[in-house]
Amino acid sequence: MSRLPRNSAVSGWRLFGLGAALGLALALGACAEVEEQGDKPIQVEIPAAAPRTLGVETPASAENQKMIALFGGEYHDPAAQQFVNGILLKLAKAGDNPEQPYQVTILNSPVVNAFAMAPDHIYVTRGLLALANDASEVAAVMAHEIGHITARHAVLREEEEKRAALISQAAAVIESRQKGQEVEAVERRTLASFSRQQELEADEIGIRVMAKAGYDPYAAARFLTTLGRDSALRSSLFGQGSDVSKPDLLATHPSTPERVERARQVAQEYGPPGTGITDRIAYLAAIDGIMYGDDPSDGSIRGTTFIHPRLGFLFTAPDGFVLENSAQAVLGVKAGGREALRLDSVRLEPSVTLESYISSGWIDGLLPSTVETLTVNGMPAVMANARAGEWNFQVAVIRFQGDQVYRLIFAIRSLDADAEKRFRASIESFRRTTPDEVQDVKPLRIVIVTAQSGDTVESLSNKMAVADHPLEHFELINGLTSAGPLPAGEHYKIVTD
């Protein structure tokens, strides 16, 4: 909570979002509305997630600061920053405009993402740096973003969007409403195809630039492959099927296998595999100690427990839930999405009672007979059940302090006594943190280790401070595809706390 919006990318490498993998439409979006619907007797304000900038700024500077704020702020790591600056300098000299003073910002986001803002800003997340395995892979990402800038993709896409909107509006006015909707659907597919073509073009430009700069041109295909694996692992954690090879007519990016194959074909024009530098050892040294996963100041997930040191609360989800901290809420799923939860917060005037708020219409299908007033660890609370379609919900609102109210919503198809007991226990786990608990929350970090004789993928993965699937995460962040012995003296990333 109070973190980055997951869908703020301008272009490029955000192929897969965990919000999508959650499927959290969550049934909460589809079956029981959790936001206000029209005019309600009680008005609720969602707290702003991003800080505001102050002072006199140019439009470009203001947009830059806004983008940085949306992604959790700038991540400060001198070694990593110096290293990516060096990569960008080489790429700029090899590009079509060697005098262009590009600048790169590392964003404090665990999401694997990179994007560009014309004319000279490139952004990469620390999540992307943690996933990449050498300098050439990071060069591939930044060269791809340079490709978007030099090909003026943002301008062209804006023009295409305006054209599509104009055609749709004209069709709706001149012809029937149904015909207008048909035209709009065609234009949406055309726009998605246009965007996919831009991605392939940026890949090609990027590979040409990075190869000219001396980097391994096959790195683009390698990193795209890793992105596909990352998506598949995240989907499996949340019980969602993942078929990255299946094209989506409305997807704005080509399917990963298509991009990988195209990237390899372009790379072959510059020589066989092994052409160019990777600079792996220097890169790993540069990211040694970089933060991994969520920034604890925005909330930390440890197994089924979520703790927010800055806001001062924690709660524990029922056993078997996998949690994800998103921009406006903590989301969770269990059993392939057959159970789900959402924790978020709203501002509610102290004069408004929780009983009147829970019945005010912000969640559909509320069963008035189930409304119950209780106290949760010294805090006033109200709990109730709701039903919408094939889904059942257990809902709780807890007044944390003043106008700060937290909402816990559990969704399940069949709300039996066992489920009610598990959900109630989770609701009753919500409490204020202690000073010691806040002090104990530390960020996870990438640490580079050297394999010793006898080390295996399994032995090093056992050192990973990752609750779910440590072996798979170790293989993913190190670009490994099979378990077993590791060559002594080789360097690997592990996640520690």
From TrEMBL:
One of its GO terms (cellular component) is membrane. The keyword Methyltransferase does not apply. InterPro entries: Mito/Outer_Membr_Metalloprot, Peptidase_M48. Pfam families: Peptidase_M48. GO terms for molecular function: metal ion binding; metalloendopeptidase activity. Its cofactor is Zn(2+). Keywords: Hydrolase, Metal-binding, Metalloprotease, Protease, Zinc. Residues 81-265 form the Peptidase M48 domain. One of its GO terms (biological process) is proteolysis involved in protein catabolic process. This is Putative Zn-dependent protease. It comes from Methylovirgula ligni.
